[in-house]
Write a structure and sequence with these properties.
The termini are close together. The model has no long low-confidence stretch (mean pLDDT about 90). This protein is about 20% helix and about 35% strand. The strands form two sheets. A five-stranded mixed sheet has the order 1-3-8-9-10, with no helix packed on it. A five-stranded mixed sheet has the order 2-5-4-6-7, covered by helices on one side. A hairpin with a 6-residue loop joins strand 9 and strand 10. The longest helix is centred in the C-terminal third of the chain and has 16 residues. It is an alpha+beta fold.
Length: about 160
């Protein structure tokens, strides 16, 4: 996958591109990368969320959380002409990066992130078309806005096109 026109999405961040550009986010361990795409107008967004739910209203970083991140991104996409009935999603990440004693909340954060993202997409009426979640490896996610194709890279593994 060609990385020209690369737009880097940081942790707890979101970027939108139209027609062209490669949105890319690194270090998806327990975090989830969410590609949202309206294929008719070739409008794509990539969110890098860290946690399932924003428990405090008015937090400074809405893209850190699945609920507020997805909601705000969809609003921005609609303002740019996206039709929610056409928007699809692809997600990657949600790995269990560390073995923890007991069944603490932190040990299962990747799974909780994944479930929260899926629930928020369903609630918004956005169809999840592909996912590559779980496991125990960190991922890099590349999203080509011109084609809507996403590529997942993990150290020592074949690229996965979703």
């Amino acid at each position: 996958m060609n990385e020209t026109g690369k737009i880097v999405v940081g942790i707890a961040d979101m970027k939108i591109a139209r027609q062209q550009g490669m949105l890319i986010t690194y270090a998806l361990g327990s975090c989830i990368g969410i590609c949202l795409y309206d294929p008719v107008i070739k409008l794509g967004a990539l969110i890098h969320i860290m946690l399932p739910l924003n428990m405090e209203a008015g937090r400074a970083h809405p893209f850190k959380y699945a609920d507020t991140g997805i909601q705000q991104t969809l609003q921005k996409m609609q303002a740019m002409g996206a039709n929610l009935s056409r928007v699809t999603a692809k997600i990657a990440g949600g790995a269990k990066m560390f073995e923890m004693q007991g069944d603490g909340a932190l040990g299962n954060i990747g799974h909780r992130n994944s479930e929260s993202v899926k629930m928020m997409l369903r609630k918004a009426g956005v169809r999840l078309v592909r996912e590559e979640v779980g496991g125990s490896v960190a991922r890099t996610l590349l999203f080509d806005v011109a084609t809507g194709q996403a590529c997942i890279r993990s150290y020592g593994k074949q690229d996965i096109i979703i």
